[in-house]
Write a structure and sequence with these properties.
The protein is α+β, with helices and mostly antiparallel strands and 366 residues long. It has nine helices and 21 strands. The mean pLDDT is 94. Bound molecules: adenosine-5'-triphosphate and magnesium ion. Magnesium ion binds next to helix 1.
Length: 366
């Protein structure tokens, strides 16, 4: 069992409260991704799990074992960092053998593990080379290999792909997911790339200022963001936010703003019954603003907007729109080819609206 459990974990560096009351269980064999903006405490959390940083308060378990006071080298976790830190004067083979030799593994066992890992990673032909004779992606594979040969109970990755170019990153991303399937080992993966988070994780943890904001499957995080921060952080371009008045009108609920008057779906009525404030923040994802009919769009309210910027990306087009009162972003089909300063009708998919409490940003519905 390689479940990793954090119980009320806190980390302070002097006055900096880097990780706050973190409760999190990473299941055995899970691929868990931690995301959040720079400085939110991702690396610190990983380093505490790895034993490279002390825990100020709280408990960390690996399986049933409390590991707070267990030295890093006895924790049975392997860490892969962004700068892979291979030994430049050693061959790939010796880089991979180094840790096992230090742990006094028998020679033939070391050899067997290295050849197996090299095979999995497709680096067998590089075993005799030195790191400087390899590309960035190949070096990254060696760093992975060095972790794999240890056969740890859990892998910890800290932005391992961020030094690679875009294409190689995409490729290594899917290789890592395949590797996880093959090794069936717990993996904790830190990134600030939300595409990596969405595509790789069984579950995602979103952090901000040392505090866990939401834990859930990628779809859950995307479709039911727990608060304004998660809603704005996950998704690119980000969700549109609009301050609205909540009006009750003959039993039905409506949202109004100087340039908008929208119905709220009936299925949200029950959840909003106890909400007493006059204001809410409406969230609409760019893909929920439509410029051409889609199933159900005959029911969507239409608002005329002016096109400010057209950004064709090939497979889709991003439009910066303005109602006159506010700017909104739409993600539309590349078939739509409006010109800048065109006035166009835009359909708002109110079925997929999100509503947030303006005080504190908690999700109300959607
Ligand atoms: N050794 C340290 N001494 C003092 N403060 C530290 C130390 N290490 C980290 N911090 C602070 O703790 C907070 C969390 O840092 P951490 O490195 O965990 O962030 P991160 O989420 O990994 O960010 P990034 O995406 O930039 O890597 C930051 O405010 C950082 O300045
Ligand atoms: Mg970091």
């Amino acid at each position: 069992m390689a479940e990793v459990r954090l119980l009320n974990v806190n980390k302070r560096f002097g006055d900096v409260h880097a990780v706050k009351e973190m409760d999190l269980t990473i299941e055995d064999q899970e691929f868990l991704v931690m995301v959040g903006p720079s400085g939110c405490g991702k690396t610190t959390t990983l380093r505490m799990i790895a034993g490279l940083e002390t825990v100020t308060e709280g408990e960390i378990y690996l399986g049933d074992r409390l590991i707070n006071d267990v030295a890093s080298r006895h924790r049975d976790v392997a860490v892969v960092f962004q700068n892979y830190a291979l030994y430049p004067h050693m061959t790939v083979y010796n880089n991979m053998a180094y840790g096992l030799r230090r742990r006094k593994f028998p020679k033939d066992e070391i050899d067997r593990r290295i050849r197996e890992a090299a095979e999995v990673l497709g680096i067998t032909e590089f075993l005799a080379r030195h790191p400087r004779q390899l590309s960035g992606g190949q070096q990254q594979r060696v760093a992975l290999g060095r972790a794999i040969v240890r056969q740890p109970s859990a892998f910890l990755f800290d932005e391992p792909l961020s030094a690679l170019d875009a294409k190689l990153r995409v490729q290594m991303r899917s290789e890592l997911v395949k590797l996880h399937g093959r090794l069936q080992t717990t993996m904790i993966y830190v990134t600030h790339d939300q595409v990596e988070a969405m595509t790789m994780g069984d579950r995602i943890v979103v952090m901000k200022d040392g505090v866990v904001q939401q834990v859930g499957a990628p779809k859950e995080i995307y479709y039911q963001p727990a608060n304004l921060f998660v809603a704005g952080f996950v998704g690119s371009p980000p969700m549109n936010f609009i301050n609205c008045q909540l009006r009750r009108e003959a039993g039905a609920l409506r949202l109004t703003a100087p340039d908008l008057d929208l119905p709220i779906p009936d299925r949200y009525a029950a959840a909003l019954q106890t909400y007493q404030k006059p204001e809410v923040i409406l969230g609409l994802r760019p893909e929920d603003l439509h410029c051409e009919p889609v199933p159900g769009s005959e029911r969507f309210p239409t608002v005329d907007m002016t096109v400010e910027v057209v950004e064709p990306l090939g497979f889709e087009t991003i439009l910066d729109l303005t109602t006159g009162h506010r700017n909104l972003t739409a993600r539309v089909s590349p078939r739509i080819e409006p010109q800048e300063s065109d006035r166009i009708p835009v359909m708002l998919d109110t079925d997929h609206m999100h509503l947030f409490d303006p005080d504190g940003g908690e999700r109300l519905v959607g």
